[in-house]
Every structure is written in structure tokens, then in C-alpha cells.
Amino acid sequence: MRSLKDTQFSILELAPVRDDKSIQFSLHHALALAQKAELLGYRRLWLAEHHNMDGIASSATAVLLGYILANTHTLTVGSGGIMLPNHAPLLVAEQFGTLATLYPNRVELGLGRAPGTDQVTMRALRRGRQETEDQFPQDVLEILQYFKAPVPHQRIVATPGQNTHVPVWLLGSSLFSAQLAAKLGLPYSFASHFAPRMLDQAIKLYRENFEPSEYLDRPYVSMGVPTVVAQTDAEAEYLATSAYQRVLGLMRGQSLKLKAPVKTMEGLWSPAEKMSVDNFYAMAQIGSPETVKAGLEKLLEKYNVDEFIFTCDIYDTDKRIENFELLMNIKNS
Question: Where does the UniProt annotation place the signal sequence (predicted)?
Fold first, then answer.
């Protein structure tokens, strides 16, 4: 069984927007976190694509990746993920091929099958296009080819993109992408940071059906884990109320901006809403370093994943960076 020391630690960043700060502040904080992640030795930092959400500033994912790449030196960065139904495969290949050409061996492309937004915004993103999620497998294959050397008589070539061999991941919260990742021999990341219900089933399906490929000779699984780590359990539970309020806003169709922590959630949510938030955060690790270490060891014992990719919705930016410092201390202890 793998130990925490042998497990890769990574970060999934959504550039959260605080209710009292500007979007520019959030983007600058995303860079500060990336620079800290580089110093701490995190394996990778990914940015997630979401649209029409006032509390998430990473919508122009490739643009923000360029900003982070330009101001870091060794950190591997990528998308977690690009929501492929929103984009033409050629444009994705050109964008990430450009990044990989400018910053060799530091860029990854995680691909998601969902639009990452509501129906109205989805139509705005796809204006004039008829692509659906059913085209996802073909679109993935198209992108993989764009990153390779062009074959004879290939009519469309990604420039930049060709010969960059950008590593591609598939992301998912259901069984579809797990099956496709297994078939194509690609690494797989499960979105258990917000949709943990099918985690166990998806991992088993992926591992049992994995076919070795030019990309991987064995399955590689990453799982999303929400975290709030502080010096004590009590402090962590207090800081976590910002995350609870954020999910509550998502469920109610309200603002997703990070709100200051509160002493108690009593009176802010109904019993049914509390249950829904608890289900959303079923994999969350909230507490002191000792508490979180024990929790991560239990997850590792149950799922034996290769990598944890952590999210964090702490209001105070210094405390948010401390969260990732404490996580790396847990790994190295």
C-alpha cells in the first residue's frame, strides 16, 4: 500500500473571488499560490474552467496559465480542466501548443466533458456551433493527433502544437471519462472534490479496463480532495464555514464569492441543505495537521490513488496559503 510520502500532492486552483476584494486581487493571489506551490514542491497546479460564476476568476484558463508560467520557473501547470464542449479542438491544441512551446515540459492539458456552466451560458459559448458531449471521444482523439508529428497528407496542422506532445489527462465525475481514459491509456483525474458519489466505481472501471499506450504503461489516478487545514481542529472548522457558505450559494443559485467565516452555520442552512453540503464535501479533509493526516491515510488505504489534487476555499489568503504549507508538511512528516 502506498504511503503519503509516495503519493503526489497537487493543487486545483479556481482563483476564488472574495466578497470584499477585486477580481485582480484573486488573479494575483492565484500567482502567489503557484509560486508558493513551486517552492513547497507540489507536483502540479491546475486551473479549472468555469463561466458566468462571480466567485471563480479562472474562466480564461489558457490566458491565466500563461501569466502563471511567465512568473514561475519549474512548476508544472495545466488545466483541470478545459471543458471541451465549449471549444474547437484545433484552438485548444494551438493554445496549449503555444504555451508548451514557450515553456517546454511544464504544460499539461486536462480535458472535461461537461460545459462547466449553466445552459444559457453554454449556448453563448457555443454560438453557431452544434457540438455536444457525444463528440467528446472524437475531439480528444483530434487533440492528441494535433500534438504529435503530422502524418502524411494531414490537412490541418496545429502551429504551434505539432510535435509538442503535451500530456493529456481526462477528467470526470462519472463513468464515461473513466472508460475513455482506460481505452486510450491516458491518466485519469476524478472530480471527487465536488462529486464524490461514483469515485470508487470509476476508479475500478478505469483500472480494470486500462490499456497500455504510448502515453502510459499503467493506470494513473488522481482524486480531488477539498481541504481546510489549520493549527487546530477548532480553527479549521471555523475557516471551513466560508467553504460551506460557498456551496450553499451554488445550491441556491446565489453568489459564489467567498464570504468571511462565521462562528456557526446554525440558522444559515436547513437540515436538508446541510446534508447536501455534507454530501458535496464527503471527501473533504478539515482539521489540524494530525486530523487531516489521519483522514488522508484513510483515503489512501481505501482508494490507493497515485495523487491527491487539493482544493481550498479559505477566505483569508494567508490562511489559504498556510493550508497548502501544512499539507506538504503532512506529506513530508
Answer: none
